[in-house]
Design brief:
- This protein has 209 residues and is mainly β.
- It is 15% helix and 37% strand.
- The longest helix has 9 residues.
- It is elongated.
- The chain has a six-stranded mixed barrel.
Amino acid sequence: MNIVATERAKQGTGASRRLRNSGKTPGIVFGGSAEPLAIELDHNDLWHALKKEVFHSSVLEMDIAGQVSKVVLRDVQFHPFKQLVLHVDFQRVDASTKLHLNVPLHFEGADKSPAVAQDKCIVTPLVTALPVVCVPSDLPEFITVDLSALQKGSSFTLKQVKLPKGVVAHVRGTQNNPAIVSIVPPADEIAAPVEGAAAPAAPAKKGKK
């Protein structure tokens, strides 16, 4: 995906405010062997690009005065209540440096699984993206998660996700195999009484005074 930017000459709070008023968004490009570079981008183009999933999870080609470099989106600052992008950060990447990036998960096949088709379970994704590590050439636009084999009473965790070649999941914390989806039985099964369970005792009758 391509993006066009211009080198930003003036910096500071006042300059950034005037830039936003003119329909531009201030930003910065950092990383690699070059010095950080202050840039500006067309706000409308950037706003529409940010709505696309691929813009957040792929290597972008940034054109600055005819020179194209590969970058990834690192941070976006939005106005608290206006539809306005205040600032955007990009990081330069090269072919040999591994990326740490969140890749969207696309779930499919749940409606055809025994858990849903036969047992009427409710399947709910618990995460929408997966942090991964890989070189730019191996970075997938998204990762497909096949749920067609889900069974009632089973679980589906990170280790069951088939990752593309060269891609490694990078999950932090003590739980290295977290659940990816929730499989819940139908509500009527949850509410049904257990067979053989004792019936609740009838309330005691009040005696006469």
